[in-house]
Amino acid sequence: MVFMKSINKNVALLEYGGSHTECMYFQIKSLKDNGYNVFLICNKSLVRQFPDPDIFSDILELHDTYEGLTNKEKWGDVKKLRRFTKTNNINTVVINTLEHRAVRNLLLLPLPKVKNYIGFVHYVRYMLKSGTFKWLYRKVKKVCVLSDSLLKVVDKYPRPMQLVSIYPIYYPSFDNYQLEKKEGEFWFCIPGAIVPQHRNIQSLLDAMSKDKLADNIRVVLLGPIESSIYPQIKKMVDDGNPHIIMFDSRVPQNVFDAYMKKTDVVLPLINSDFYGKYRISGTYNLAYGYRKAMLLEKEVQASNDDFKGISMSYTPDNIIERMNEISQLPDEYYTCRKAMENHPYLNIKTQCDKFIRLLEE
Q: Is the full-model pTM beyond 0.85?
């Protein structure tokens, strides 16, 4: 292994046009634990996603790209970025959503001090099809995808590069929200936005209206609910359904953290037709990060080696039956939970070490 001779300890995390700040928590921990000075460069609306801005040596706020920027504003961001990286002697930039076209525009001009670029790709099809990615590859020689399964489907790319899988499975912990969980309750949690296109939420609701859940089960919808499905869920709650815990808007980080800590099983309900083989849901990383066993549709479970030993399965016809069985704490549940808690690969230290090795090579 050859390490970069010119590397310094100043690293900037760049999120421009994307919103995958959950991956940046992992990057921050990895860097801070290894003595790096961490700088933040992002759209102004994302700054509030970081609970403690003092962890950054400096912050550069750029325009929100969804606002429809003028050419003057775009060039203004380019100039600010060049000035910021030069002034702070930043050697390494970690691009958090590499496939976003706005990133290409931001990096049209070279950054004076930056020699080391790392990019995180969330939708690997862009690596094979996107002209934006081919252009960015001139600068970015180190690329991370978010699971081993995604690594396997990227069998060709423009030029030789370092391509690795990184599981960003660290999330900030809070202790300022007191959450009550009644004795004997068993929580199945669906963390993140409740969007029918992404999750088979309608199938679960239909099953709940047909078959009875055990009295001790709670289904936690831990995220904003899309408007197309919100009225149906709200009516179920208003009509007295005791099983559903829902939120009317984005869940604050401390509340999200409290619910994840008390969750018994993560229920992703992932729509495999939407995600396909080129991207993976962040729900899985939440399960890994919080060390929670998962309940997966049987076909989904069989599609990814990562899920072996740490998940249980159901079919569309027996999801309520399986939830009821698991809520009674069978050996199957304890076996999966123990395997997740002691996983040799899907743990924070292993993944942080892997990220730092890539950065320093």
A: yes
